[in-house]
Amino acid sequence: MVHQATCISVNDEAAHGIPSPTRHLRAGDLANLDASAELDGYFSDTGVSVAVGDVSEAAFRLLEATRQTQLVAMDSARPGHQLRDIGRAVQSSARARGFRVIRNLCGHGIGHGLHEWPSVPQRLTSSKRAAWSRMSKAAPETVETASSSEPKAACG
Fold it and tell me: What DSSP letter does each residue of 65-89 carry, written as one string?
């Protein structure tokens, strides 16, 4: 039997929003869909941000910057690369496009559990674990990016 879960975050909700029958998406919204599933003891996890109908120019730029930053992150996630190199690439890409990353969100290992070690940062970090940990071709990991236009303390 497949077990699955979906989180839907709207506009300024950073992640892991809970779907609600009383909340309706409207044209101009940005929605982040985060879906996970488990089958026979193995987990998967994926996400995508989408525009609902026509969105403002600023929302479109944020969406495109996040997509481009995700591509940069995936390109830097290669066996042997240090985890902090991924964070550096993500943070640099977001900043070059005029945005910030959300510090307390990160990618993660995945396999028999949904969130396994290691944490995969989306910013340059001084964490010794991230500094010395390397991507392994034997260990699946998610590389998740979340960009923001907000200069809040949670952004880097």
Answer: HHHHHHHHHHHH--TT-BHHHHHHH
Is residue 155 in some structural domain?
A: no
Sign of torsion over alpha carbons 80, 84, 90, 95 = negative
- Token code pair at residue 43: 């987990």
Does residue 37 lie within any of the structural domains?
Answer: yes
Mean of pLDDT over the chain: 79
Instruction: Quote the number of domains for the chain.
Output: 1
In a domain, 10, yes or no: yes
> Quick check: is 153 in a domain?
no
Contact residues for 31 (Cβ-Cβ < 8 A; gap 6+): 8, 9, 10, 25, 49, 50, 52
| Parent domain of 137 | 3-148
30-44 pLDDT, tens digit per residue, is 998 888 888 999 888
What pLDDT, in 10s, does the model give residues 80-107? 888 788 888 888 898 899 888 877 777 7
